Amino acid sequence: MVLYVSYSFLFSLFFIQLFIHQNFQLNLSPYILTLLAETNSGESSEFLKTYILSYNSLQTFIVTLCLISLAFLLENRGNKINNTRRKNKIIISMIVLPLLIEGAYASKTYFKLFAAGSSDDVADWMINDFCQPHDTFSYFIYALKGFGVAAHDQERSVSVNLNMDKNNTIVGIGNDSLNIILVIGESFIKRHAGIYGYSLNTTPVMIEQKLKGNLSVFNDVVSPYAYTNKAIHNMLCCNSVSEGERWYDTPYFPGIFKSAGYNVYFWDNQKEDSPNIACSVALNSLLYNSVITQISYTKTNQRSFDYDGQLIENFIKNVKFRSKLNFIIFHLMGQHTNASDRYPHTKDFNRFSSKDIPNKAEFLNDSKRQEIAYYDNATYYNDYVLGQIFNFFSKTESILVYLSDHGEEIYDYRDSRGRVASGINANLLRYQYDIPFFIWYSDKFKQKHMDVVYRIEKSVNRPFTSDNLCHLLFDIGSIKTVYRKSDRDLISPTYKCRKRIVNDSYDYDKFFN
């Protein structure tokens, strides 16, 4: 009986995993369980009508039935074979013993998962500890655990936001209008930006704005994490990583802007990002929770786009400001892997080729140089997108803060791309954690807020971490709130830089002193 129950469970699990992969190119994950939990009977019926008799589903049925038949035949044959011989027992022991040893060794991976207390911890496990090659059972365990802790984190965050102090007011603006724009980039390598000294001019718009006196470039800003989930959770809440504070124990600060009287617009080009990525469900469970959405946003986009420029065009087309005070967040795809997919391959944006790449490392070949060229073209396109935003707000009283969620590598100092973490060292920190950060302001803003521009310019060399972003924005927005701490505000005279802890473990500055 136990044997048949085990077979039923394993074949069901195999069928579900294969069905999801064949139809949607996904794997079992917390995202899938979340979708199932949120699906009503009508949606389930439509889903079955659409997919149950599809070609990919029929393939899945056939493969599963073949495996069940094979298992049945082997089981029957096994019952007829005399397994009492000592020789057979020795052979079986020789096969099973190494598997048991390997299983015991690998079990520590699962202990880490079972010990995870938050969605951040589960995302850490998925990125750093998930066994290779990935197997269906591990995906199943990951999906169950991730679903459970994400729900727990979400409940805590929703409770905190529902019960946050509502006495958030705007002081000193009067009848003036003000647009505050926050642009969150993705995977932007600071050392591939012309404005930071890269030999290829990948940022002509930013350089032009700096020469005109409308852009302040910050030189020493780091992200506490090198992947999107934890970077943005901690960027958009009021906690401080170095102080040991958790994001879900502090408010989501766009809600504070809305409570104070700003209209808040959130245009996100990663809204429909691949749910097979561990961070996606964990991050979107915060950004698009129904309670958080009601508390925090005036309006959001309904879909994502192939290119960030299309996202900005959609915003311009669909948003008509109803208030003098507006807080706008753009979350871009930026230079997210694969960089070649992040920009239109037209004459305007196929700016660089493999022949233009200044990196002469011996491990580079033409293919890798072309990958670098794709990345630099994506950076050039990202600069163009920022130009779209500057142009739209240039005639208004507006200020824009740009930063990337984290950095990246593209064969810069070693034969590696992405964010491979093979031991923390100074070079890895420079490329994966050091991020571009700048503030742009319109002419009208400069004229009316000379004191703010002066404080910004005086602060460009201060060390800073992106998890303290909200305090800077509260200052710019003249928001009086119990959640603002002036000693964490980058442009405040009382700003004090604490230890910059990255990846929950390392003092960033110790690697450079």
TrEMBL record:
Gene Ontology MF term list: hydrolase activity; phosphotransferase activity, phosphate group as acceptor
InterPro entries: Alkaline_phosphatase_core_sf (IPR017850), PEA_transf_C (IPR058130), PEA_transferase (IPR040423), Sulfatase_N (IPR000917)
Origin species: Segatella oris F0302
Keyword Transmembrane helix: yes
Ranges that cross the membrane: 52-74, 90-107
GO CC terms in record: plasma membrane
SUPFAM superfamilies, per database record: Alkaline phosphatase-like (SSF53649)
EC code: 3.1.6.-
Sulfatase N-terminal domain segment(s): 179-471
Topology with respect to the bilayer: Multi-pass membrane protein
Name of the protein described by the UniProt record: Arylsulfatase
Annotated keywords: Cell membrane, Hydrolase, Membrane, Transferase, Transmembrane, Transmembrane helix
Example GO BP: lipopolysaccharide core region biosynthetic process
Subcellular location: Cell membrane
Enzyme class: hydrolase
Cited PANTHER family: INNER MEMBRANE PROTEIN (PTHR30443), PHOSPHOETHANOLAMINE TRANSFERASE EPTC (PTHR30443:SF2)
